[in-house]
């Protein structure tokens, strides 16, 4: 292995819905993290892997920082804490128009205590003006970031220079994973996340937050993938909303999820969806162990 090879773990942290998942997917060129306008879409730490002949960057997309009102939120905060402990570099992302919120200040103060290189990304600058952006960049300087980068991740066409800057902060190491892997998560997990994404995209109000998806069976045959999954809901009254008139809503979720999974596995996909009522599942530690 090249003696100047660099490899390390990079955590992406910040408030919900500031663009963390978009950044990870853009850097990887693959859709590994759920993207939705709704906050708290990412509930688990997802590792994506970028490898070439000079570096291996293991990206950890963490849930957005939230106050722990449910046991689910405690679980999300646990994922964040674990990812920061393992980090060689931390990327803090924030919204150019909304920074600094109380959450941002709390995160930045916490990050200041960690003895690892940190990058701040002031995202969504396309939705702000130059005076505001310059003011926010000045405010970020108070938190001792190695680099502060104003950016619109969604509109960025080339992130290679950012990857080069990120690589300079990584330690000299051989690769931790096989260089042909793009994630250490099983396909079963991504199937679960893709189905959950469709719930976020197709329903309003409390349904996305009161639901989750558990894949009970994932069978990978030579010419097709067959998946059996349960959608957990907290209330019986939510069931007809998810099913929709004549089953149209749940059918739309199934078809869209099958198409998204097909793009990854490149074979026919069949999903069977079932609904289970699990009252207050977000508050129950034992229930959270199932996903």
Please render the helix and strand layout as text.
Layout: E1 6-14, H1 20-28, E2 46-51, E3 55-61, H2 71-85, E4 89-95, H3 102-112, E5 118-123, H4 130-140, E6 147-150, H5 160-168, H6 187-202, E7 211-220, E8 224-233, H7 239-243, H8 248-265, E9 268-277, H9 285-288
Parallel strand pairs: 1-3, 1-4, 4-5, 5-6, 8-9
Antiparallel strand pairs: 2-3, 7-8
Helix pairs in contact: 6-8
How is this structure best summarized?
This protein has helices spanning 20-28, 71-85, 102-112, 130-140, 160-168, 187-202, 239-243, 248-265, 285-288; strands spanning 6-14, 46-51, 55-61, 89-95, 118-123, 147-150, 211-220, 224-233, 268-277. The longest helix has 18 residues, at 248-265. It is of the alpha/beta class.
Summarize the structure in words:
This protein has 291 residues and is α/β, with parallel strands linked by helices. The protein folds into 2 domains: 6-168, P-loop containing nucleotide triphosphate hydrolases (Rossmann fold, 3-Layer(aba) Sandwich); 187-288, K homology (KH) domain (GMP Synthetase, Chain A, domain 3), CATH 3.30.300. It is built from 9 helices and 9 strands. The chain is globular. The two termini are 37 Å apart. Mean pLDDT is 82; it is low at 34-44, 65-73 and 287-291.
Tell me the number of structural domains.
2
Number-wise, the strands total 9
Q: What is the H-and-E element order?
A: EHEEHEHEHEHHEEHHEH
Structural class: alpha/beta
Q: Give me the Rg, rounded.
A: 20 Å
Please indicate the percent range of residues in DSSP E strands (runs of 2 or more): 15-25%
Low-confidence stretches: 34-44, 65-73, 287-291
Largest sheet: 6 strands, mixed
Quickly name the level 1 CATH class of the largest domain.
Alpha Beta
Task: Figure out the total of helices.
Answer: 9
CATH architecture of the largest domain: 3-Layer(aba) Sandwich
Strand order, biggest sheet?
Answer: 2-3-1-4-5-6
Distance between the termini: 37 Å
The CATH homologous superfamily name of the largest domain equals: P-loop containing nucleotide triphosphate hydrolases
Round the mean pLDDT to the nearest integer and report it: 82
Shape: globular
CATH topology of the largest domain: Rossmann fold
């Amino acid at each position: 292995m090249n003696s100047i090879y660099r490899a390390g773990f990079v955590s992406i942290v910040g408030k919900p819905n500031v663009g963390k998942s978009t950044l990870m997917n853009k850097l990887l060129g693959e859709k590994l993290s759920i993207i939705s306008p709704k906050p708290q879409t990412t509930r688990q730490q997802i590792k994506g892997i970028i490898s070439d002949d000079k570096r291996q960057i293991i990206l950890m997309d963490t849930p957005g920082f939230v106050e722990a009102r449910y046991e689910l939120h405690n679980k999300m905060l646990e994922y964040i804490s674990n990812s920061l402990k393992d980090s060689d570099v931390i990327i803090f992302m924030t919204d150019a128009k909304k920074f600094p919120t109380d959450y941002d200040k709390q995160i930045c103060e916490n990050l200041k205590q960690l003895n690892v290189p940190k990058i701040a990304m002031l995202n969504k600058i396309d939705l702000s003006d130059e005076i505001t952006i310059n003011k926010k960049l000045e405010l970020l300087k108070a938190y001792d970031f190695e680099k502060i980068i104003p950016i619109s991740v969604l509109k960025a066409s080339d992130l290679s220079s950012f990857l080069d800057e990120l690589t300079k902060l990584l330690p000299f190491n051989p690769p931790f994973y096989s260089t042909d892997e793009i994630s250490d998560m099983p396909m079963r997990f991504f199937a679960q996340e893709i189905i959950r994404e469709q719930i976020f995209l197709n329903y309003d109000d409390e349904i996305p937050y009161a639901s989750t998806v558990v894949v009970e069976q994932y069978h990978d045959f030579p010419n097709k993938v067959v998946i059996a999954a349960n959608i957990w809901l907290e209330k019986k009254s939510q069931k007809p909303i998810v099913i929709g008139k004549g089953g149209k809503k749940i059918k739309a979720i199934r078809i869209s999820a099958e198409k998204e999974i097909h793009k990854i596995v490149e074979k026919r996909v069949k999903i069977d969806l079932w609904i289970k009522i699990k009252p207050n599942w977000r508050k129950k530690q034992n229930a959270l162990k199932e996903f």
